[in-house]
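Researcher: I've got a protein sequence and the SMILES for zinc ion. Could you write out the 3D structure of the bound complex as structure tokens? I'd like something to compare against our soaking experiments later this week.
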Amino acid sequence: MSPVLRESEVVFMYGHGDPDIYRAFAATFQGWGGAATPERARMFRELGMRATGSIWCLTAGAARLHADAALRDAVVRDIRGEPVAVPWLADHVHEGTPSWFGCTNHPAFRRLNREQAREAVSVDVDGLHIDDPRGSAGAMASGGCFCDYCMAAFREYAKRAAGEAEFRAAGVRDPERFDYREVVRAAADTREECLRKWRDLPLIEHFRRFQDEAAAENIRGIARAAEERAGRKLLISVNAYNIEDGFLPIVNLDEVTHIVCEVRQAGTAEPDSFRDTAEAYERARRAGKPVAATATGENWAWVKKHGAIELPKIWIAFAYACGQRFMAPDPERQWCHTHELGTHWYAAPAEQYAPMYRFVRANADLFDGCAAVAPPRVSEEDGLLTAFRARPGAQAVMHAVNLRCEPGAPGRPERIQPRRNLEVPLPPEAEGAQRARLMSFDAPPETVRVRRTGGRLALDIPELRIWTIAALE
Ligand SMILES: [Zn+2]
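Model: Sure. Here is the predicted complex with zinc ion in place.
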């Protein structure tokens, strides 16, 4: 059986009907659904790619909610019992019905999740991608969910999890019969007040954990329904935004094989740093779940607005150097999002990025099966990432990624300052290496000697443009 995601995997986010798009990137995996019809699924097979179907646990969608009273009942409710609409789908309204969050603790919405999962894997796919997997747990940031099903399930959870003193402090006389809504209303009886006081609401940490665990249980049920329908084990991926802690109960499920998500990238207007990105990848590594990442909608909106071409190349190199994968910037529709513009799209120039991915695939043996000997070293001050990776009984490699990208200004394009004669120290594990073959996507290979200075091993990279991989010999 092939590994879940190889280190050299070239993953696409959205599906395309034109096989040449995939060929240009030497793509191997269609990650975020995209194999929705038998014809599409066949195209991926013919390309030698693995592919997935996808569902989401966010909402039944405005049109379906409008038409189906049972689903209209199965939506996230605030403390007043009012349905809660998905804030970023404010423009998705069907004949007056908004896109309300579905409640993943309500049987009718759970049924829809499973039906959609079965349908998504009814064509020849390798796996299922699940978007917005936290469901009702994710809706807490919008003021839910206090529906009857959540309340009944939370009562059972709290009886096991909360102590007598906690119930007393929350003013609960009879844990067998308490209604959490009454407890909350005593402190905050509007949605706005709830959102303002979340942290201070009685029993809130238990409620949060209950929602997280219930969401994980829902994902497990969806995975089982899909595998029963497919009649085989499937790859199951989730969108675990930035691999943040709230997703870990889901990420840690045995059923979940990998993560396909946005990871916040450095170098745009956001205050994010390369170290933050490395830490997100590290959280996934610790969980034992490989990642196919893209940048956030805000990152991509910045790239589009500033015409930045080089910066995403750093993101790509950075991810692969960390042992993860950065999904091919979409040549037609890369999702962008800002507060002012909402959703919009960017067509990333394939001729700029495809060579990097072809380089990865052509040198798959420098990636596959390699593990970090130590966590990657990210120095914002030096503008440098170095990562030493090795595979037992095979060549070890040192990745060096130049993080110094000067944004463009009027009359001057963005620019990555090449680093000349860059000394890269090697760890003790490199002992015995004599030479290093320097590989880059944008230049022919060259060989340099490994040298010893003051008892330490090092090599010199004559010119680091964006990304050099030194294969030790
Ligand atoms: Zn609910």
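Model: The longest strand covers residues 456-464. The pocket of zinc ion is lined by residues 76, 103, 105-106, 136, 145, 147, 149-150 (CB under 6 Å).
Researcher: Great, I'll pass this along to the crystallography team.
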